[in-house]
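Sequence in, structure out. First:
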Amino acid sequence: MKKKILIIDDNDELRLFLKKSLEKEGHTVIPSADTISAIERLITNDDIDVIVTDYRVGPIDDDIWLKFLDKFYKDKKIIIISGYTLKDFGSEGIKYIKKPFDLSQLLEAVE
């Protein structure tokens, strides 16, 4: 099933690569370079299915950003992509993929 995906990453090359790769698979992708613009996109696109976010993307504190997503967007699939090893946030709804990752890992997680 094709999804509407919000990608939040401050790395322009990675964000563009993920956007193109996911669109090639038939998904609709909304890119965002930071957490503030991501919130704007979440407010204006209530039909987002999946949120793919870097852990350290700012300007909102990393842990607060994840708690915000977990509290207010539990109905969305949330995938964290990060080079940092993350602690357990106590939510089964948040999936973690360690950078660098193979695109197939993300495609599997999106489904």
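Second:
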Amino acid sequence: MLKHFKSFLFAVLLVLSPMLMAEPVDINSATAAELSKALSGVGPGKAKAIVEYREKNGPFKSADELKKVKGIGKATVEKNRAVINVGGSAGAAPAVAAPATTQPAAAPVAPAPAAQ
């Protein structure tokens, strides 16, 4: 049993190690070659499509905007979210959504007087 667990753990680490060691990539300034190297599941063709989309439509405002590129879907964005940086444009939003702010709680309301 322990032998199988060790084999499984080794396999998982082998698969995940490239993602754990991946360097961040700025999708607004990276070349197609840099994108295909840094993003898992993005080869030269999809990387070229990302650059062409950026050149035609301007800088990406968020990592999620990559889904507008033909061939890039939600799974690809989620798989690479940790290494995607969105820079190179004024006021660019971060690739990872900021935590939601909470609204202050409403003041407690006094109970209505009991009917007699």
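Remark: The two ends are 71 Å apart (CA to CA).
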